[in-house]
Amino acid sequence: MSDRKPDGRDEDAESFGRLVEGVRQFSEQVYPERRAEFQRLASGQRPHTLFITCADSRVVPEMITQTDPGELFVCRNIGNIVPAYGEMLGGVSAIVEFACTALDVSHVVVCGHSDCGAMKGLLYPDDPGLRRMPTVASWLRNAEAARSVVEVMRPGLEGAAKVQALVEQNVRTQMQHLRTHPAVAARVAEGSLSLHGWVYGIEDGTVHTVDERGGEPVPLGRAAGGRPGQ
Ligand code: ZN
To answer: What spacing in Å lies between the alpha carbon of 91 and ligand 1's midpoint?
Structure first.
C-alpha cells in the first residue's frame, strides 16, 4: 500500500525483473549447490513445525528461525489469525487439520510481529482505508476478543504501545482459538503437540515468547523454567 509515483510502471517492471533474476540465480546457482538436500525433499515432506504468522512482507519465517526447506509448514494471513473451529471453516482450518493430522507436526508456533498493520486496523476500524476493504474488516473480527481484552486490561495505552499490546494479546487469542480445533485439542491432550506464542520485533530482530495466561513477554529461550530454545 505504498504511494505510487506517476512513473510507477517502470518501477513495477524493475521489481518483477528482480523476481525473474532471483529465480534464475536460484535455479542456476543455489539449487545445484544444495541438490542433494532438495532431491531428498522431492518425494515428500516431514516438517516438524506448523508456523502461523502474518502475511507482512517483513516477516520471513525461515530467515528468522534459520531453518531449511522442509522444516516449516507455513500458514500466513493478515494478522496471523486462526478462526475458532466452526467459525470460518476454510484455508486456515484446513491447514491446521492437515499439519496436525497428516503431517503430524510436533509444534505449532503463532508468531505476531511489531508494527502489525492488521492490529492497527483492528484498533482503528473507522479508518477510511479499512472501510474500502470490507473483506479485511470482516476477517479482523476473528481478533476482536484480543482488542476487547487490551481495552479493559491496559486502559492507559495509546499509539504504538497499544498496537504492541494488541499484537501480544492477539497471539494469546489465536492460541486459544487453536485449541478449539479438534485435531489440535486431541494431540495436545495426549502430549504430542506443543503450542508456542511468539512476537517478532522487526526493529531489533528479537523474538519474545508470549504466555497464554498473560504477563510480560520473555525473550525466547529464557522463559521461566524453560530450557534454552523453548
Ligand atoms: Zn502483520
So the answer is: 18
Task: Report the side by side order of strands in the sheet with 194-200.
Answer: 72-77, 49-54, 107-113, 194-200, 207-209, 218-219
Q: Write the single-letter amino acid at 134.
A: P
- Residue identified by cell 516477516 is 59
How far apart are the CA of 28 and the centre of ligand 1, in A? 33
pLDDT in tens, 133-175: 999 999 999 999 999 999 999 999 999 999 999 999 999 999 9
CA–centroid distance, 85 to ligand 1, in Å, is: 22
Q: How much distance in Å is there from the Cα of 115 to the middle of ligand 1?
A: 7
- Please tell me the distance between residue 49's alpha carbon and the centre of ligand 1 in angstroms: 20
Q: Where are the domains of the chain?
A: 1-33, 46-220
d(CA 42, ligand 1 centre) in Å: 32
For 183, the grid coordinates are 485435531
Tell me, yes or no, if the pTM score tops 0.70.
yes
- Domain 46-220: which topology? Beta-carbonic Anhydrase; Chain A (3.40.1050)
Contact, 181 vs 85, CB < 8 A?
yes
CB 217 within 8 A of CB 196: no
